[in-house]
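pinging the channel bc i need a second pair of eyes. not urgent but kinda urgent?? the chain im working w is below, pasted from the shared doc
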Amino acid sequence: MEDRKTKKIRWGAIALTLVLLYFVGQFITQLGMKSPPYTIRDNTISELAVTSCGPFENPTLHQTVVACSPLHDVMNGAFIIYGTLITIGLILTYPIWPKRKLTKVALFLLILSGICIVIAGFAPGNSNLTLHTVAASIQFLAQNIGLLLLGIGIRKTHKKLGWLTIIAGSIGLVGVVMSGTPPFALLGYGGWQRVGVYPFPLWAIGIGWMILTRLKRHESPLLAIAK
């Protein structure tokens, strides 16, 4: 019989694992994109969420982008669900992490990024560009700096997980820097943006799955995890 604390951790882990829905939502929305052709290399994730067909301003590229996403509700819904799952998942699994100042700051940043994702989902780039841009900018930095700090905070006691988390945050930060550095060599603007975004949800899915696996084996989910 699980105690209340373990049940909360289990539900948090399920929420983190369900972050997979974010990628499902992107894939479905991308299939419905109309002309001009949408490519991962040249187009942003936010373009999948625009609520009307036509030109809108991309503040990073400083140019007008034409996008038409008939399934924009799917993408905006995916943003909102993803951000909610991240926020709830990290709050409920909070007890598994070592109680250190650095890990507390890191988890605060990761939870903040989840909240910003929800805000971005409610404020598509074509209808509320300023709010969408601010929320997305905070998200990109908070999630990757948060991962980096969390990895540093647990590295000495949980070496493997610590280094994986540091690597995820470092890759994300490289993507953020490169997506803001024209001419976006090799991967293009859209490609580098995804390098900046994807490490965090992939990390979250992995953490959720790891916790559930430990609970299935009747092992403690506390860190303890993957020493």
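so The first helix runs from residue 4 to 17. and The chain has eight helices and two strands. — does that match what u expected or am i reading it wrong
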